């Protein structure tokens, strides 16, 4: 269930690098024990048009969607590990951010085709 959604400045990170970043973020997330590796879904969206504080500075923003139930400590551990991974793999990017979002388990609906 956990979703890691990466938004990034396409002209700075680029598709050639984003696949490796996606893989490393999934590894880092699973290593925290907050989520199971087999459940993690990662996707990325590159942006051609953007402003960061009114300028065209590079960015990577990671939104993590989890079903509610994790403790604040677990979410902080996850956030720190993911930010550390971004810093390590995107040292040239100006703005790196991570946002952990709780999803309502009653409202979240899913269908898997067998």
TrEMBL record:
Pfam families: CHMI. Keywords: Isomerase. InterPro entries: 5-COMe_2-OHmuconate_Isoase, Tautomerase/MIF_sf. The keyword Membrane does not apply. Gene3D superfamilies: Macrophage Migration Inhibitory Factor. The keyword ATP-binding does not apply. GO terms for molecular function: 5-carboxymethyl-2-hydroxymuconate delta-isomerase activity. This is 5-carboxymethyl-2-hydroxymuconate Delta-isomerase. It comes from Rhodopseudomonas palustris.
């Amino acid at each position: 269930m956990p979703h890691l959604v990466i938004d990034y400045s396409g002209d700075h990170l680029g598709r050639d690098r984003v696949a490796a970043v996606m893989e490393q973020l999934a590894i880092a997330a699973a290593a925290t024990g907050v989520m199971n590796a087999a459940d993690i879904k990662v996707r990325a969206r590159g942006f051609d048009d953007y402003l960061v504080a009114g300028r065209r500075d590079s960015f990577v923003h990671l939104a993590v969607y989890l079903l509610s139930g994790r403790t604040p400590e677990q979410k902080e551990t996850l956030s720190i590990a993911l930010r550390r991974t971004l810093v390590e793999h995107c040292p040239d990017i100006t703005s790196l951010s991570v946002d952990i979002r709780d999803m309502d388990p009653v409202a979240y609906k899913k269908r898997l085709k067998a």
